[in-house]
Amino acid sequence: MMRRQAWIKSLVLVLLTGFLPLYLWAQNFVPATFEDVDRKHFEDGYWNGSDGSGEIRSGTISFKNNYNQEWGSWSGFALSTKIDTWTRGLSNQYSAITGEGIDGSSTYAVGFYSSFDGDSELVLDFPHTLPGLYVTNTTYAYWSMKEGDQYAKKFEQGDWFKLTIEGRNSAGDIAGRQVVYLADFRSGASSPYILDTWKWVDLASMGPVKRLSFSLESTDVGEWGMNTPAYFAMDNVGGPRIKEAEGSSSSCFINSLGF
User: Is 164 exposed, middle or buried (0-12, 13-18, 19+ CB in 10 A)?
Assistant: First the structure.
């Protein structure tokens, strides 16, 4: 009897030892570069959720999307391969001002913040400490702030446009926040700018997070809310920093509000 119990324990140990590497492999985190997304999802160079899927996946991360079939509108995240850095207005809402992803990649994400639908959100398959991600302005938002348009003002001294990234752990508790100024004309700013290059945002201080939410604020606010186009572009979520690929024409101030 004792020999049988010992044999069973040995068998269980062997099975556990054998399956543990497979379990750990299954838990391996894969950054979202968006280059792994099947091009069949793209129409006219972008995906905006019109297929009704409600999300798009890259790596081991899901990016949430809200698409309104009646209005043909969306919020949350879209994906893009657009390269138009010149065309002004809403018709060019899917282009990053850089004209490409980080390090010359072809695909990146575009976030649209809607006060009606809530923050743009991404969810990891399992909690992980993210090194960081890259952000920049969209072409639409950039030229709106630089020149002004029929809905929004040209930015001047005292204005700012900022992105807040909030991380939550598996229990739903806030793990930390990062505030990134996509445009900064505050009096205390060393050099006023509108971001036009990919900017690294360090998220490691948040520790393991299960989800990130993104919201936008601006000094240009009207009766119906924010006038500045509520868009930003994002790439290489959870990947390493690529210093040699970062531009030097803009310097973005990041204010860390760790918890």
Answer: middle
Helix (H, G, I), strand (E, B) or coil at 67: strand
Alpha-carbon gap, residue 129 to 152, rounded angstroms: 37
Q: What is the pLDDT of residues 146-164, one digit of tens each?
A: 999 999 999 999 999 999 9
pLDDT beneath 50, residues of the chain? 1-2, 4, 7-8, 11-26, 248-259
- The CA radius of gyration of the chain, in Å to the nearest whole number, is 21
Alpha-carbon span 111 to 180, nearest angstrom: 14
Does residue 177 contact residue 166 with C-beta atoms inside 8 Å?
yes
Strand, coil or helix: 102: helix
Q: Which tokens in the block code for residue 159?
A: 């204005």
Cβ-based neighbours of 113, under 8 Å, separated by 6 or more: 75, 119, 120, 214, 215, 216, 230, 231, 232
Contact 14, 8 (CB under 8 A): no
The contacts of residue 6 (CB under 8 Å, 6+ apart) are none
Q: Is the dihedral of CA 173, 226, 217, 53 positive or negative?
A: positive
* Chain-centroid distance, C-alpha 220: 23
- Of 110, 125, 115, 120, the C-alpha closest to 66 is 120
